[in-house]
From TrEMBL:
Sequence ranges assigned to domain Erythromycin biosynthesis protein CIII-like N-terminal in this UniProt record: 23-220
Pfam families assigned to the protein according to its UniProt record, in alphabetical order: EryCIII-like_C, EryCIII-like_N
Keywords attached to this entry: Glycosyltransferase, Transferase
Domain Erythromycin biosynthesis protein CIII-like C-terminal: 236-373
PANTHER family, alphabetized: STEROL 3-BETA-GLUCOSYLTRANSFERASE, STEROL 3-BETA-GLUCOSYLTRANSFERASE UGT80A2
InterPro entries associated with the record: EryCIII-like_C, EryCIII-like_N, Glycosyltransferase_28, UDP_glucos_trans
Family classification: Belongs to the glycosyltransferase 28 family.
Name of the protein described by the UniProt record: DUF1205 domain-containing protein
Amino acid sequence: MRLLFVTGPTPSNVFALAPLALAARDAGHQVFMSTVRERTSVVTGVGLPALAATTTPLADLKATRRSGEREHVPDDVDHPEFIRYTGRWFGRVAAESLVTLREVAAAWRPDVVIGGPHAYAAALLAHELSVPWVRHTWTALDTRGIHIGSEAELAPELGRLGLDRIPPPAMLIDNCPPSIRQADAAPAQQIRYVPVNSQCTTEPWMYTPGERRRVCVTGGSMAARDNNFELIRSMVKHLRALGAEVVVPAPQETADALRAEFGDIRAGWFPLDVVMPTCALVVHHAGGLTGLTATLSHVPQLLLPQEAKVRESSRLVGAYGCGISLLPDEATEDRVADALEELLHKPSYAERAGDLAREIDGMPAPVEVLDLVTSLA
């Protein structure tokens, strides 16, 4: 059977869909994974055949409307207009991707199309081909309001297909464990989270705990953005004062800046799933995959969500007891310092992370979910 995976424009989109795609490939199915041009190396890096669905630089798709007008990007990420703006540029990615995916489908017709939470080209291509569409989301990324912006941008494509909105999927898959899933989230087929990262040649320090408590600080794949970089920088300063060993998985630009300032920290793009079991704590931006990776290693979390779309999921992690969540207006110098001390010294956080890890272990494995996906065709 032929399975086409369509991801969104960030590395985390690739990593989230990769467990199911790799299970399909291991089972003998033909698998392609489509993404924006800038992320094809991430796809090939996890061992999957990549399709470059766009040619326009991602920065231009974000900045320019289809009419040629410059986008207005709201300064306030909490404003509803920012969500609609996000939906519009996701829509532009989908419109351009659809052109390439139609050409692919003319020679390699998929039996099922599996798309990330806002990879709308998957929905439109599947409708056009009359094949099942599966939506694969994770943790907090089912953001309300994004559909509205995307549907407005995709009006020409929807109209040509006789649609007035993005069609619903035949199946929704979600890897969020039930205990920290939002109560009003749409019903979904559970799938066990399996960490998949870009890899490198491992070094002994990566899998060997140091003499000091090791704390991982990360802003995820978007750590080069100003707000996340300053967040990382401030956390490094706090943790050095506590005598912790700090490791920072980050893009090269961010790693170089941190080493230039602090000198003795380990920073770079090393595999989170390898390093995490050696850590006593992870401090992060409330990234869903980062949090799940930490949970599987029974590592407590300090979550510092910057964007509204991840704040509820961050709150649920804190309420469960495996971490502390601080909103931007709560993350004062004193409150952060107290949270770090509490997480490093109070064993209940690691114990609750272990409870959640066992819940994840009991969720259906990707190969089990694969059988349900292929049965749709």
